[in-house]
Amino acid sequence: MTPVTFEEKYYPAVKETVYQTRLSNGLIVSLLPKRQFNEVYGVVTVRFGSVDTNFTLSEKGLQFYPAGIAHFLEHKLFERENAEDIMESFTRLGADSNAFTSFTKTSYLFSTIDHLSENLDLLEELVTVAHFTEESVEREREIIQQEREMYQDDPDSRLFFATLANLYPNTPLAADIVGSEKSINNIQLNDLKNNFTAFYKPVNMSLFLVGNFDVDTVENYFLQKKLRNLEEMVVRKEKLTLQAVKETDNLRMEVSSPKLAVGIRGAGEVAAEDCYRYNILLKLLFTMMFGWTSERFQKLYENGKLDASLSLEVEVNSRFHFVILTMDTKEPVSLSHQFRKAIRQFSSDADITEEHLDLVKSEIFGEFFSSMNSLEFIATQYDPMDRGETIFDFPKILQEITLEDVLEAGHRLIDNGDLVDFTIFPA
């Protein structure tokens, strides 16, 4: 048996100890026992997402695949050779299971109060065994097209992804995560097999367990496993080639009130170890400027120009980073002008003060510690493969951030960034 030794890392800010190891096959395993809960959440994450449609294989060169292939593969892996759905096997064990695809990764998870070893076996089967046939691919294609149509009928989803497409034209980010009608139809059996072979390797995955379990039990589980030999990654992901943004755009849908999005695209790359902190800094900056505690929001709200629908999306990855604000407003043209002007002149904004920063930090602190009572939140937000800080460093990072740090992050994003707006008008 191959020995399994977990290293301990204590996070004083959240009073938690994470146990982590890398198995001989390359899989990173992280454990956070929380015996005060009844459930256990298990998540396997694969570093393969919607933006990974162009990549270089060491033996085959540059490869191009249709948009939506990572999401398509996520669907197909739940199907066994006999057409049985693995989800039903989780259900028979009393567990819930799910999966989701994001821009840069695909995650498969379960929650259970019993039969941990059996659920771990099913999770392993999900990401290591693939059964594809032409017939099953065609059957799944129809299901995914229906899912795509559902998103196309959702104004908020259309608003976000249309804005993203105008921020990153002619890149994989310009396509919805599920793909387009044409790209879904273009995904073939061999495409799925090739991507599974390229990305679904233990060295490109991590497993995270959080909840009511014993570390020794999990260690013994892996001691009994016959692990595959380490396979090195032979994939080089391609950088996004940024082109000129489409500064303003619109469409019409069946909505009761216009919907506006204002987005900004950052220039240059962010070091992997800096991504988490930079994300927090940008959230602080834009919350101070546009959040419900800002003078700007209060005035617009009191005048009926803005409501509680205002939301903020911040995405920071080593390959791309952007911020998108979305809202319902009866005056989208006027509000877009105000927001864009405020963003460009952020360094002199009346809402960016030491006092306001302290207020926003206190609010975010409270939200964070409330979220830490949710195993699902911890399971889906902690990324064992992050090379920098993680959610367990969040309180320490937030406490140390100064107003100068926030302003510096703003200059980094905005000074050389590109702004767009997108409006959905009532049909």
TrEMBL record:
It comes from Streptococcus oralis. One of its GO terms (molecular function) is metal ion binding. The keyword Hydrolase applies. Its EC number is 3.4.24.-. Residues 67-179 form the Peptidase M16 N-terminal domain. One of its GO terms (biological process) is proteolysis. This is Putative zinc protease AlbF. Keywords: Hydrolase, Protease. The lineage of its organism: Bacteria, Bacillati, Bacillota, Bacilli, Lactobacillales. The keyword Flavoprotein does not apply. Residues 186-362 form the Peptidase M16 C-terminal domain. The gene is albF.
